[in-house]
Each structure stands twice: as structure tokens, then as C-alpha cells.
């Protein structure tokens, strides 16, 4: 199984197939607009700007499962990310990333790369690096800044 077997919902309600990202390196992150880690959005955008022409795509999945740190309206989330942090990488609809209602994509990600002591996502800004074949290569804890992921991205380029 690869990430290409999954779909996700865009903010406008349309579903996309992840097969559209075949041959790309993906960095998937569950985000929140009102979290202490939110400034990582700027670093994620910098990664995207630096490496997008070489095949990196950053994908943001807002979630309010951790102390409700996301806006209720996805349009407020999009506006916040764009105006405050200059985000231009794709952001999806609000997504459940843990528990019984977790989106199948996040179930796949967390079972492919377990976290410390558990496979569950423990907080906002957990990051997953996906290779060009759609396989989960590595998982990063929320406190790991995107700049620290550069060596792993460059190995995949």
C-alpha cells in the first residue's frame, strides 16, 4: 500500500486522489492556527519555496483535535495561513488525525511510521516524509522544526 491509494478533501469540498502526487516528495503535516508550533508554517513555506521545483510538495491538514486550536471556519484558517505566514502550499479541509474518526490517510501514516511509544498522533505539527514512490519514509515529532528535515529531503531529491 502507498499514499497513492488515498483521497482527501479540499477546503471547497472536492476530493482529490493522492495519485496526483506520484513522483513527488511529500511532507504531510497536521496543523493548527492557534498552537505554539504554528510559526512552523513559515518554515514549512520556506521548505516548499526552496524545493518545490525539485519535486517537494508540503501538504497541510488543519485539525482541531488538540485543545481546539483551529478556527471553526476553514476560510478563516486559509486566510490566517496566507496573510500571517505567506502559505501557498496546499491546505486541505479540517481533518480528524487520531481516534476512531481518523481519516484513513492518517491511519495509514501512523501505522507506517509509529511515534515514540505509540502510533497515535500526540499533537499538532506531527510531520511525515513520503518518498517519490508514495512510501512513508520518516515521522517527525511536533517540536522538530522543518529546517531539521532538510537533510532527509535532500537525500530523496
TrEMBL record:
InterPro entries: Glutathione_peroxidase (IPR000889), Thioredoxin-like_sf (IPR036249)
GO molecular function: peroxidase activity
UniProt keyword annotations, A-Z: Oxidoreductase, Peroxidase
Domain of life: Bacteria
Record Pfam families: GSHPx (PF00255)
Keyword Oxidoreductase among record annotations: yes
Keyword Oxidoreductase: yes
Family: Belongs to the glutathione peroxidase family.
PANTHER family (UniProt xref): GLUTATHIONE PEROXIDASE (PTHR11592:SF78)
Protein name per Swiss-Prot or TrEMBL: Glutathione peroxidase
